[in-house]
Design goal:
By secondary structure, the protein is an alpha+beta fold. 20% of the residues lie in helices and 31% in strands.
């Protein structure tokens, strides 16, 4: 008998644990939910095409509005109201992120190869001043790096002339579904 028992040296197939619904977690990940078509990357990404694309999504529900999308930068705005506040009456961290990450996404779409998509894999947000109801926040995104597999975008958020927040986001570029 081989050292370690009768199964030593042979691969043992282990059963995957099931979640509460009786489905293996990896099986759940393989199921894809179809998403609405995204405009082709590049110059076709405009504030107008984005307004149509984001209707009914989180950015639109939070009042994030695209203002400018060029090769160099993307700009959006959000006017702070009650839906953006935490219980203390100031802008919630998630609202800052929703604004900044949305504007970073528009800039990323502008630089993707045709047929590709992306997902946010890392972000770092610094808030320098509290946002209050009535504040008009402008976010401007510019690429720090646009590679084949990752993009890094910096977003500066201003209220008037004052820098109130800064976000650095890393996006992972994904091949078209047929090549994944």
């Amino acid at each position: 008998m081989a050292r370690g028992g009768p199964r030593a040296g042979r691969a043992v197939r282990r059963r995957r644990p099931l979640d509460v619904q009786g489905v293996a977690p990896t099986d759940r990940l393989r199921r894809r939910i179809p998403c609405a078509a995204v405009p082709e990357p590049g110059p076709e990404i405009t504030p107008e095409s984005l307004r149509a694309r984001v209707a009914g999504s989180l950015p639109a529900d939070l009042g994030v509005e695209p203002l400018e999308v060029t090769e160099e930068r993307s700009t959006g705005r959000m006017i702070v109201d009650e839906r953006h506040l935490h219980p203390g009456g100031l802008v919630h961290g998630g609202a800052w992120v929703a604004l900044a990450d949305s504007v970073a996404a528009w800039q990323t779409y502008r630089h993707l190869p045709p047929g590709h998509d992306f997902t946010t894999v890392e972000m770092k947000l610094n808030v320098f001043a509290a946002g209050k109801p009535g504040d008009e926040l402008f976010a401007t995104a510019e690429h720090l790096h646009a590679g084949r597999s990752t993009h890094v975008v910096e977003v500066r958020v201003r209220c008037g002339e004052r820098l109130v927040a800064n976000l650095i986001v890393t996006q992972m570029v994904l091949a078209s579904p047929g090549r994944r």
